[in-house]
Write a structure and sequence with these properties.
The chain has 171 residues and is mainly α. The protein is built from eight helices and no strands. Helix 4 (77-94) runs parallel beside helix 6. It is globular and about 50 Å long. The N and C termini lie far apart (35 Å).
């Protein structure tokens, strides 16, 4: 039975990996087709950054930095915030918590400026998760509580549930 489950896991994993590779290839082709320095290019770069999450943190950083630079050039605030958030996720994945915190905080500032509640919620939760893995539980709980407050105001039950769940892990 264990062998069957292991084989199923391997099949599922390789299928999932090849689908993600195909998605990355498609996005790379889309990026090559669109040389125009606009929000469409930024959003494609952001999708490529996300697609590399858990696969290649170096590529994540490369695409996030490229999307950040272009977002700044064309003054695309949402793109800037998303780029910083994804850079934070890449640094978090690599265990570079100080750089992750810097980037999550920059993203949070911009999301607040443009009043984008989902971005605010995710950055607060990411900061909470970062503090949690560093065993800084009181700080983690503060970030999760702030995330829950914004989630409840914006009626985002899903992200409130995630923050409550993460707080439960601490307790």
């Amino acid at each position: 039975m264990k062998k069957v489950l292991f084989i199923l896991f391997l099949i599922y994993s390789s299928s999932s990996f090849s689908q993600n590779n195909k998605f990355i290839e498609d996005l790379t082709l889309e990026l090559q087709k669109n040389a125009i320095q606009d929000t469409l290019r930024v959003n494609t770069l952001l999708k490529l950054t996300s697609a590399n999450y858990g696969v290649n943190p170096e590529k994540m950083l490369q695409y996030a930095e490229e999307s950040l630079q272009l977002s700044m050039k064309i003054n695309y605030k949402k793109g800037q915030a998303e780029s910083y958030k994804l850079k934070g996720a890449a640094f978090f994945t690599k265990g570079n918590f100080s750089e992750a915190e810097v980037n999550f905080t920059k993203a949070l500032t911009i999301f607040k400026e443009i009043k984008q509640s989902k971005g605010i919620i995710l950055c607060l939760s990411n900061l909470g998760s970062m503090k949690m893995v560093q065993n800084k539980y009181p700080e983690a709980i503060q970030f999760y509580q702030k995330s829950i407050k914004v989630s409840e105001i914006s009626k985002d039950k899903k992200n409130a549930a995630f923050a409550y769940g993460n707080m439960g892990v601490i307790y």
